[in-house]
Structures are given as C-alpha cells and as structure tokens.
Specification:
Two copies of one chain form a homodimer. With 239 residues, chain A is mainly alpha-helical. Chain A contains eleven helices and no strands. Chain A has helices spanning 3-29, 36-43, 47-53, 57-80, 86-103, 105-113, 117-120, 125-151, 163-182, 195-209, 221-233. Chain B binds a DNA duplex (30 and 30 nucleotides) through residues 1, 3, 7, 35-37, 40, 45-49, 51-52, 55-57.
Chain lengths: 239, 239
DNA sequence: TGAAAATGTGACGAATCGTCACTCTATGAC
DNA sequence: GTCATAGAGTGACGATTCGTCACATTTTCA
C-alpha cells in the first residue's frame, strides 16, 4: 500500500515547512524571538502538531543545525571538485565555511549553540544521532583532502600525529576565527588585517607548519582564495 | 562622609554574593537550571533586589563571564612570568586556558554563549563595556609575548600581517580546539591523539609556520607543556 | 457506510521572566 | 531623642512561553 509512503512524504514535507518557518523567524528577529506558537501560527498548524515532529524547542534548533550542516556538507563536497593541488582544496573548504557564516550569521549562532551541553542535553537522541552522522560526513570531506595530500606526497604527518588531529586543528582554527570574527566589532581595540585574508593567512601558517606542499612561499594562495570565493559564492542560496 | 563608601562596599559584596550563588547553581545543575528565583532564594534576598544589580538574566551570565575572564587574565599574567623563551611563554598561556576550561566546563559554555549576539543584545551596555576592557587586558597579555618575541628576534612577522592577526589566530585556535574538545564525546568517530598533546601539537605547527624560534624541531616543547601544566595547576581554585 | 485508526487541535497548568507600588530601615538635621 | 526622608528591599502580579493531553476531525478500508 502506498498510503504509507504518501503519509511519510507528507510528514517530511511538513517537517521541512516547520523548519523553514523557524529559520525565517530566526533570520528576521534572532534566536530569542523563536517561539513554538509563532511557528504554529506562521505555518497555520496548531502547536500540538509541531510537537508531533519535535520533542522540544531545542530539538528544532538542532533540526535547523542539521540543515545547515547539510548545506555545509554540500558546499564542502563541491569544494572537493575544485581543480587544484591538495592545499587549494582545503582553502576552498575554508572559504565555503566562511561564506556560509557570513551569509547566515544568525544560523552560525545556532551552530555554536548546538556544540553546547546546554542544548544537546535537551534535544532528542534521534536528532543528535543524525547530527553526528552529518558531522562525520563533513569530517570525511576534510579527511579525504588530507589523505589525498598524503598519498600524493604533498604532506607527511609528523610522528604521533593522526589524520584526525590535523582535521580537528583545521576545523578548530576556522571555527574559532569565525566565531571571534562574528564578534569582531565587539572586541574593540583589535587592529586586524582585512577579514578575508585573515582566515587565509592563519591557515597558510598552520599548513606551512605541517610542511604541506606547496608552501605558501611557493604558491600564490591569495589568488586561489579569490578564485574559490567567486566559485562558491554562486552556490549560496540567495533567498 | 564614609557612609557612601560603606554602602558602595556592601553593594559590591552583595553583587559578588549573587554571582557566587549563580555560579554554584550552574556548576551543579547547568546553565538552563539558573533562575532568578533560585538566586534570590539561595542568597535569602528577594528577586527585586537581584534586579537592582542586574538588568536581566543575560546580564548575570555576562557578570559570571566577566569573573571568568578576570581569572583567566590572572592566570595569563602569571604565565608571563614563566622563565623560558618566548614560545614557552605562549605555551604557558595556552595551558592556562586549557586548565581553566577543563576545570570549569559549565563556565566555558558561558564564555561561548557570551560571544553570541543573542546574549550580548540583552546584557547591559555597562557590563559589555567592562567585558571589553577585560578582553583587552587578556589580549594585551598575548600581545606582550608576541612583541617580546619580535624584539628578541625570535619572530619576524610575514609581510601584511599584524601582531593582532597572530594574536587572534592563537586565540581562535585555542578557543576552537577547546570548544570542540568539550564536545569530544559527542563527535563520535574522531580518532584523536590524547587531549593534552592535541593543543600543544596544533599550536606548535602554527608557530612553526610563523617561523617562531626555537622551532619545535629545535626544542622539546612537550617538556615545557608538562612543566607549565604543573606550574599553573596550583593556581586553579579547588573550591 | 461506518467503525477504527490516524491526525490535528487549542485550552490548560506550570515555570519563569521582569515590574512596580509598597514597606521597612538607616541616616542625619534639628 | 525625634522624625522626615532617601533609598534599600520586597513579593504579588501580569505577561510570556513551554509542553501536554483529552477531545475533535479526518482518513482509511473492510
């Protein structure tokens, strides 16, 4: 009987509807303006129906996060296809991350919150499980580039260093920079270079430290940065 | 008239009392368990009195953050006195950061939250201003080490790179690693080296990339790490 | 067609926020 | 010592929001 599959499809569509409504509210008025009643009102369903889909408000936040992670994964996958050496591919991923957070700062706040015990303690285990899965996908994208670099001889990891160590290092550096960057005007008194080259420069030094070839002295990564920027910019939804 | 100064002193003591109560609640039951009524009850004051000190709940969170930043500044200052080369001093600071977040994970969640627009929009301007000031102090501690390295010839910054760029890079790397580290068990499937060497290794690579001498090939920073760890551990309040 | 299953509802209780009109208390002028 | 006054302290209150659940409505299919 395909009544079941139709039901399933309708259910998923409605879930998407609720998440879209929530995302809109957040983009316009910020996270603290998000209420279950507003989501119900905007979608013309009753609150009870929203709770058929999400166990609590935090579960919705994680649902949104899941979508964001998905988009990020898409962008990262796209970055992998960038024609260039292994370091250029990594830069392309970093640029993707940067573009995303700059385009949707409110949702980046969400990504930050979702790394916090406070939120994760309340969200449903099922959704956390799914977040883990997408996390893994994203990580695999970065891992793939590192593996590629090792195989092609561009990179030799120091002793006692795992692939995942570098993976986390790159992630942490980008994450940290973008979080602090989001609060840039709040951290007064910092005399910084232009936003766009900041991430590039720090990543360059880190990768130079790993002796990931070609080194920044051997290749013009600023050009790569600019090209990948234009390349990925087109992928970002305008809405 | 010193009635005024006494009043002032009492006011500050009570503020400290409220913050201590809030911190206790958070340490025991997490951020979401913090309510204004509980703070009032635990301190045996009425809620209205709490609101004489803090404009809203977020203002309290920022107040706690301010204390944490203060402690961190103290620790960083102490790190500056570490006898060793400039890179060792930076490591000492990193170790201090790590020790703090591991000792008080709940409060680290707070530090993260306080970098988020959501919270900052609600806190009182006065407190945000004070946070900025302490931020600056902390940054100055890092700046000082970088300046020292430059003056002593250990470090020459690349062209188009500011002192503050490196400052932010170091901060971002540590911040990012510690946030992700806090969610370590949540990011399943990551095969990482031991926690303690992770931060050290990533920082080492970054600083090697900057050609900050002595390079990690020329000096045993693992030893530095272990020594500074023991050195600073004693500073952390046991309570 | 109609009984059973699935879906949808919104009034409700509970928790919490932040306010404000008030009571109480310490101060210092006389 | 008395007393008017500033300001410190209160907690009942309205408002908001969460999450629930007993009931209403719709859909399914025998």
């Amino acid at each position: 009987m395909n009544t079941q599959t139709r039901r399933q499809r309708e259910y998923e569509q409605r879930e998407k509807l609720f998440l879209d409504a929530a995302r809109n509210i957040i983009r316009i008025d910020g996270i603290s303006a998000l209420t279950m009643d507003k989501i119900a009102e905007h979608t013309e369903y009753a609150k009870g129906t929203v709770y058929k889909h999400f166990t609590c408000k935090e579960d919705i936040l994680c649902g949104l996060c899941l979508d964001s992670l998905g988009l990020m994964y898409e962008m990262f996958s796209h970055a992998l296809t960038w024609q260039g050496n292994s370091r250029e591919k990594i830069i392309c991923i970093g640029v993707g991350y940067q573009l995303y957070t700059q385009r949707f700062p409110e949702e980046f706040d969400l990504l930050i919150a979702a790394r916090t015990n406070n939120i994760r303690q309340k969200a449903s285990p099922e959704r956390l499980e799914r977040m883990d899965q997408v996390d893994t996908l994203v990580l695999n994208a970065i891992r793939a580039v590192i593996q590629l670099a090792i195989q092609s001889g561009d990179l030799t990891l120091p002793e006692h260093t795992q692939v995942d160590d570098l993976c986390l290092g790159l992630w942490a550096m980008s994450f940290g920079l973008l979080v602090l960057e989001g609060a840039r005007d709040l951290i007064s008194g910092l005399e910084l270079s232009a936003t766009n080259t900041l991430l590039l420069n720090q990543m360059s030094c880190l990768l130079d430290g790993y002796h990931w070839h070609p080194l920044s002295t051997e290749h013009d990564y600023l050009l790569t940065y600019q090209n990948t920027f234009r390349h990925l910019e087109a992928l970002i939804p305008k809405d």
